[in-house]
Amino acid sequence: MKKKPKSNVKDIGDLITVTEAARLRGVSRAAMYELVQRGRLKSEKMFGRVLLYRSDVEAFEKEKPGPKAA
């Protein structure tokens, strides 16, 4: 009997493609991938695609420029 892989997906209905996320934010796909690379947005890899959480994309706040608070 095969074991099902554990999934950390919060809500599969909340997942959108990188292209959809980029359109939603008005930025390029490359910008969205960069946010994922930097750990600013959580992603899931499913069906051979990188998917992002719509709620995280909508709630995302850009960092303010300048020195970071300690």
At CATH level 2, the architecture of the domain at 12-59 is Orthogonal Bundle
Number of helices: 3
Q: What is the H/E order?
A: EHHEEH
As a percent range, the share of helical residues equals: 25-40%
- Decide which structural class fits the backbone: alpha+beta
Descriptive overview:
This protein is an alpha+beta fold and 70 residues long. It has a domain at 12-59: Arc Repressor Mutant, subunit A (Orthogonal Bundle). 33% of the residues lie in helices and 17% in strands. It is built from three helices and three strands; from the N terminus they run βααββα. A three-stranded antiparallel sheet has the order 1-3-2. Helix 1 (18-25) crosses helix 2. The mean pLDDT is 85.
Outline of this structure?
The protein has 70 residues and is of the alpha+beta class. The chain has helices spanning 18-25, 29-37, 54-59, and strands at residues 15-17, 43-46, 49-53.
